[in-house]
Please model this.
Amino acid sequence: MANEFLRDRIIRKLGSLPDERLYQVLDFVEFLETKYPGEPTPNSNLFQRFAEGVEDRLRQGKVSATTIAETMNLMHKAIGVLNDVTTTGKSVASDIVDVASRAGAAATSAAASAAERVVSQQGGSAPSAQSSSAGADAAAQPSTTPPAADGGQPT
Model:
C-alpha cells in the first residue's frame, strides 16, 4: 500500500515550486519510470495524451515555462469541454439504444397479444406449423383412389 503521508508531503513541497522546477521534477519522475519500471501509470484518455504531447513539444522548443503554463491551462479548459461533449454523446447514444430496445419489446408484446386475440376469436388454438404444412402437402398430392367409372356421380 502506498504511503499516503509521503505522497501528501511531496505534493505540499511541489506546491511551492515555480513551473521551471516542476518541469525538472517531471523529467526526473519520467526518468525514474524508465530506469525502474514498476506499476504502469494509469491510462489517460485521448485528449489528455494529446495535451501532454503538445506540452512536451513546447518544452522541446525551449518555450518559457510561463507560456507553456498558459497554453496548458487553455488546453485543460478545452479538454474539459471535449470530455463533457463526449460524455453527453455517450449518454445520448445510451438513451437511443434504451428507447429502441423498449420499442422492440413493445412491438413483440403487441404482436403476441394480437396473435392471442386472433386465436381466441377463432374459438380454439392456433394450428401448429406442422399440421398446417401437412395439410398443404396433402392438398398438393394427387389422390391415389381411382375416380368412379360413371364420373364420380352417385347413382
In short: The mean pLDDT is 78. The chain is about 75% helix and 0% strand. Residues 46-104 form one domain. Residues 8 and 14 are 10 Å apart (CA to CA).
